[in-house]
Amino acid sequence: MADSLLAAFVWAFQAMLIFSTDTLTPPLPVMVALDTVASAALLWRRDRPFTVLAVTTACHLVTVVTGQNTWVSLAATCALYSVGRYGATRRAWIVALAFDFVMSAAAQLLHLTGGERPAVTGTVGALVFVGLGQLLRFRRELAERARAELAEAAVRAERRRIARELHDVVAHHITTMNVLVGAARTTMSQHPEQARETLLTAERTGREAMAEMRQLLHVLRADDGSAAASAGYGAAALPALVARVRGAGLPVELVVAGDPVEVGPVVDHTLYRVVQEALTNVGKHADGARASVRIVYEPGAVEVEVLDDGPGADVAEGGFGLDGMAERVTACGGLLRAGPRPEGGFEVRARIPLTAAEGRTT
After folding, report:
1. What confidence tens digit (pLDDT) does each residue in 217-230 have?
2. Are residues 63 and 168 in the same domain?
3. What is the number of domains present in the chain?
4. Among 96, 214, 345, 347, which is least packed by CB within 10 angstroms?
5. Interval 226-256: pLDDT, tens
6. Residues contacting 34, CB < 8 A, separation 6+
7. By residue range, what is the domain housing residue 105?
8. What is the C-alpha to C-alpha distance for residues 76 and 42, in angstroms, rounded to an integer?
């Protein structure tokens, strides 16, 4: 549609110049025909820019060599721009140089045969219009490349988010089940009833893992990115998490300080996942340790602290543990500190400002 309007405008503009001239060489019908052919060729300027330039240049040359300098070929000018915009770069510059050379030679020939002295400004016109087309083409390619890079970055971020979710769900429940099954195996011969209860707890943990996985897959399909954060695992679910971990054999206590405030789903989910991952690491890497979880609500921030007194520093496996916690907290505008304690054991502390956190959930 745009090319059709351009062709119509060019035809009308050049026709106005033709009909405003008193004497025409070649005759009026030939000039109108040249105008029509050159303008119509612009309909294919995107797909065949070099062919269109050849046609418009041929029409323009007829007017130049016959001394009709009052007709300025707007069609050829548009074709030159199209060569720079849609043609191959190296070929476009070669064609621009050739166009300027041919036009200059034709003008000089006209001068030698007794016509008007040609203007020298037209000798570099092709380079200007091809350069303009190349510039706009380069700018568009940069914009498209930037959009592609943003899309790739979004895909990578989504993959990291899915990896964090899968790691937090699978690692926690599998670790708990391993501990429970190991405890049942050691007590089965002497305390079969106790082993039976432990295995039943492991079975319930497996069912919880499957339920959480199904819920996770459901929210990952949602269009709203915050839906994954509102999967029902937040600060309100921490007592159940601590009880489950305690039932698996890890002594842990939960303390909530300050007046609980309502936070956005992303922050709420982050608090739960930080505690879950920290306790999972204690169970995997600090055998025989005791742990404590402390949630502190302050006027402008919420802080979570998970401590253990294990014999060594526990570290996250698979590259998604501590890194995943740090990414979650950073996404909420907070800071995470994790490392060995001077008195022994390991600590995980996360502090999230409520103003920044709320701003990310609207």
Report:
1. 655 655 444 444 44
2. no
3. 2
4. 214
5. 444 445 578 888 998 898 888 877 889 999 9
6. 59, 62, 63
7. 2-118
8. 9
